[in-house]
Amino acid sequence: MKPTPNTRLSNRALAFVLAGGRGSRLKELTDNRAKPAVYFGGKTRIVDFALSNALNSGIRKMAIATQYKAHSLIRHCQRGWGFLRAERNEFLDILPASQRMGESKWYLGTADAVTQNIDIIDSYDIDYIVILAGDHIYKMDYEVMLQQHVDTNADVTIGCLTVPRMEATAFGVMHVDASGQITDFLEKPADPPSIPGKPDHALASMGIYIFTWSFLRTRLLADMADDNSSHDFGHDIIPSIVKGGKAMAHRFEDSCVTSGLETEPYWRDVGTIDAFWQANIDLTQFTPPLDLYDTTWPIWTYAESVPPAKFIHNEDGRRGYAVSSMVSGNCIISGSEVSESLLFTGVRTHSYAKLNRVVALPDVRVGRHADLRNCVIDRGVQIPQGLVVGQDADTDRANGFRVSENGIVLVTKAMIDTYAAKA
């Protein structure tokens, strides 16, 4: 169905967010929550970026498929995204894995997560479906990508990042012709194909796909009947369309949203402890690579009603202050030194403590004289008095904390319990 004049394509589209993955490379940070539910940026969750992009693009019909330890994610969506009103034909439906089509309880793959909900999607009365990964940090106008999909009469349009060619070995890589049509799709190739005219760069898949719903519906039913399929977009659906249909690449730089402060298109997979820490710490820079203060493209989330942050004590050696840092609401910096750090809601730091390049998730408590550097502190952790973290990797490991490849220390409740038992 072609849109009527003066109607945005996003009005006829559904954003379907795949948010069932654990994100095992985040180690203990995802022991109790799926990767999309991991905190980011002081008050948001990772999933808020895909959902906010959809809402800001004009897509007000959204569904989110959950699976691994989904309670935290579901609760966040219910609390933070409950402002959508069904009577205005807008919604965020939560679609947990269930025994909807046969006896299999779990989603078998990314495509199967959509297949198992075909009857629900049919009821939405949409023309286009925008498949989104729920675990990346970026700002993007999906309306621009939708327009390209319609203008090129594509079977599928795939969001692509322009990356240095040899960095593309960790991605699905597109080989495209001069018109942007994808002629080959390679999963994590050792020798990635370059972009025409840019021999040192490659196009890597963002995990964003746009289909006309009637086309995808037919493909999904055929895929469901194929016993040899893994029922996955990247492994099955997309390669088959590339071979026998029309798959078009959409370059992220054509639709990324910037405020004027960002110097280049921003997209991050915060899927490791190092990447998660770095992306959060980057936000404390004088001019951060991602502008969260852009009110024209807000990142919507659960807006807790909390008091402002407070800084107390003003004595030599016991002065509560924070420099080059982001400090969220309901934090109390009591006689502590905080520098180049990001503190989420409800953090408390006590006298004589020092925090340098620390990412502290909500409700962390830091005891007196603690000295924390280059670390991620999980939600609700209580740091004992005098604990030193981030100065000696061997000591940190001996104390039961996880040390990443780049020397970032992860501290969780269970690790603190182990440390306390040894003390």
TrEMBL record:
The UniProt record lists the keyword Transferase: yes
All copies of domain Nucleotidyl transferase, residue ranges: 15-284
Q: Which Gene3D superfamilies match?
A: Hexapeptide repeat proteins (2.160.10.10), Spore Coat Polysaccharide Biosynthesis Protein SpsA, Chain A (3.90.550.10)
Q: In which pathway does it act?
A: Glycan biosynthesis; glycogen biosynthesis
Q: According to the lineage, what is the superkingdom?
A: Bacteria
Task: List the SUPFAM superfamilies hit by this protein, alphabetically.
Answer: Nucleotide-diphospho-sugar transferases, Trimeric LpxA-like enzymes
Its top-level enzyme class, in one word, is transferase
Q: Which PANTHER family match?
A: GLUCOSE-1-PHOSPHATE ADENYLYLTRANSFERASE, GLUCOSE-1-PHOSPHATE ADENYLYLTRANSFERASE-RELATED
State the family it belongs to: Belongs to the bacterial/plant glucose-1-phosphate adenylyltransferase family.
Q: What is this protein called?
A: Glucose-1-phosphate adenylyltransferase
- The organism of origin for this protein: Loktanella fryxellensis
